[in-house]
Amino acid sequence: MSLQDLKWSRRCRGELAVYQPSWDSNVLSAVSTRQGGASSLPYDTLNLAYHVQDEAEKVEQNRERLTRALGLASAPWVTLNQVHGTKVHWVSKDNIKAFQGQNMNELVEGDALATEDSDLPLVVFGADCALLLYYDAIGGRIGAVHAGWRGTVAGLPSIMVEEFIERGSKVQNIQVAIGPAIGPCCYPVGTEVVNAFHQRWSFADQLFTSEEKECNEKSKNMVRFDLIKAIELQLMEYKLKPEHISTLNMCTSCAEEDFFSYRRDQGRTGRHGALIMLTRP
Ligand SMILES: [Zn+2]
């Protein structure tokens, strides 16, 4: 069986617009937009995260709307208390309780979820950090990752690949769909970020630019960081096929109608989400 090249597309699912990777029907996957929800400013409108001071009932309604739009049964989502770490949590029907609920303090800490079980909707949240979805159609494994610069420099995108391989995946069968993230147009960084990448990754030279771009006056003349490229190059260093990596290529800060952006909105904003679920055992 040969795998098709991976692509993203924008689709209407019920009342909501979502972005979806071109995967087969054994997996359901989508990135939400901020449109079509119940939340008010500054969480307008489809905020999916409880921890951002939005009203809990609104968040609940928003999660239900997305769940319905995607045609999921209303099983609770599998989520994490995201902490910019590097641990991958394997979830099964036996340990799922620790990953469910509204209270962040009661959720397991981490930034990467994986499973081999069907009907467990893994969800990671973001507002500038990259959201990555992993799928091995042959091995029957999926994963979801939240990666900002800290998780990326520490190797989280490739740690998930290693975990898949440890469980029996072949690297040539692993596909990664890289969702929205803040782009190099809008992501000025300090020397700690530049130095951290140079210390760890041989391709660090390719990740930073100080060339002018019209897109954002504020970050003109500053060193700007390409988070998506850092993830792509890391995955290719771990031998993923380029045609099995697909980037949505939308900057969360520029795409104001579709995505929340922590930087653009100076910290007071909602979270969009990336969801993936195996639909068959
Ligand atoms: Zn931008």
Automatic annotation (TrEMBL):
Reaction it catalyzes: S-methyl-5'-thioadenosine + phosphate = 5-(methylsulfanyl)-alpha-D-ribose 1-phosphate + adenine; adenosine + H2O + H(+) = inosine + NH4(+); adenosine + phosphate = alpha-D-ribose 1-phosphate + adenine; inosine + phosphate = alpha-D-ribose 1-phosphate + hypoxanthine
Keyword Zinc: yes
Transport among keywords: no
Top-level taxon in the UniProt lineage: Bacteria
Gene3D superfamilies (UniProt xref): CNF1/YfiH-like putative cysteine hydrolases
CDD domains (UniProt xref): YfiH (cd16833)
Family the UniProt entry places it in: Belongs to the purine nucleoside phosphorylase YfiH/LACC1 family.
Function: Purine nucleoside enzyme that catalyzes the phosphorolysis of adenosine and inosine nucleosides, yielding D-ribose 1-phosphate and the respective free bases, adenine and hypoxanthine. Also catalyzes the phosphorolysis of S-methyl-5'-thioadenosine into adenine and S-methyl-5-thio-alpha-D-ribose 1-phosphate. Also has adenosine deaminase activity.
Name assigned to this protein: Purine nucleoside phosphorylase
Taxonomic source organism: Heliorestis acidaminivorans
